[in-house]
């Protein structure tokens, strides 16, 4: 499993890395690396491969919101059934069980703020176990999954000395 973890670390940072490159870096046979990746996919350790896109630069407008959700846990299953139900909505990107004041943190995407508001009022808040929600709109992404969206700008202020 140690080798598998090393493979996972490499492809987590670059999903486009070829099996040949991974094998070279880890000083292993390509066939062994291919077998490890196939097993990790079969065992659902690797669930998929994503691309991080800077939609602002692609000219695409959209809205992302983080919604804190307070729930009434269900007997026998706690928060699981409700979290799974929320996760099935197409607007929902992520659902996390949280410690603290709220039980779930839900990341939602829509085309406009009204889309998010409609989702909260018509879909999320109508679920029986949902007690309350707090919605936070993302104003700007600086970093996601280790990718920085904009390079730091130079300080262009004039130096003033006493």
Report on this structure.
The chain is α+β, with helices and mostly antiparallel strands. It folds into two domains: 2-42, Arc Repressor Mutant, subunit A; 63-142, Lrp/AsnC effector binding domain/regulation of amino acid metabolism (RAM) domain (Alpha-Beta Plaits). Helices cover 33% and strands 21% of the residues. The protein has five helices and six strands; from the N terminus they run αααβαββαβββ. Helix 1 packs across helix 3 (30-42) and helix 2 (19-26) packs across helix 3. The longest helix has 13 residues, at 30-42. The protein is flat. The N and C termini lie far apart (61 Å).
Bin the helical content.
25-40%
In DSSP terms (H or I, runs of 4 or more residues), the helix count works out at 5
What is the terminal separation in angstroms? 61 Å
C-alpha-based Rg, rounded? 21 Å
CATH architecture of the largest domain: 2-Layer Sandwich
N-to-C SSE string, H for helix and E for strand:
HHHEHEEHEEE
> Strand content of the residues, in percent?
15-25%
Q: What attributes does this structure have?
A:
two-stranded antiparallel sheet, alpha+beta, Alpha-Beta Plaits, 162 residues, single chain, 4-stranded antiparallel sheet, 5 helices, Arc Repressor Mutant, subunit A, 2 domains
